[in-house]
Amino acid sequence: MDAMSETTSLSSGDVRMEGDNSALMDEFGAHPSTYRPFLEELCEKTKFSKSEIRFLYRGFKQECPGGIVQEDTFKEIYAKFFPYGNSSMYAHLVFKAFDITSVGAITFKDMILTLSTLLRGSSREKLRWIFSRLYDLNGNGFITKRELFDIVSAVHDLVGVSKQQAQAEDRKTRDHVDKIFSKFDVNRDGIVTIEEFLESCLKDELIMKSLQVFSTTL
Ligand SMILES: [Ca+2]
Ligand SMILES: [Ca+2]
Residue 56: left (phi > 0), alpha (psi -120 to 50), or beta? Predict the structure, then answer.
């Protein structure tokens, strides 16, 4: 989705949603004493206003009446967008990135905390999210070449290649990963830290540009 049009549609939703608390009621029980603090908490922890949160929640409940998103749903959506490739690995990685509490399901809170970073965050915040939620697969604080390879392969799989192409494609992926990795690994010690990642990305015009459309490709 596009950040600009999102903002526009959100603000047009403000008027309609003003004063409607019912949408948030069922997330944490029907009593106002439980949903009001929940709404306040989300408002505090994100860059969205209360009326935007209510608006987003209404949309969320429409798409996911059960209140949570399962990994299968994620995979189905990605399969529709990338019908010629194998999107299941990438869908799995993005799902993991959204599933903040690692419970195997994405709640409204997970969703909105992530969207807040991706749509309204600064470049630094977005990069931190990409580093820690998407690239650092085992969550140990740094990226190895293997982790980068897994991510890049998953992205390449989205498009899909024939069996004959697969070997050449694998070679190309490795070359690509070598190139990116050596750019990120500033001190050449074989791991990429968040500091190195930020330093490399922030001075790369192409990466900075793609960050602006990041939420569209995710
Ligand atoms: Ca790691
Ligand atoms: Ca390093």
Answer: alpha
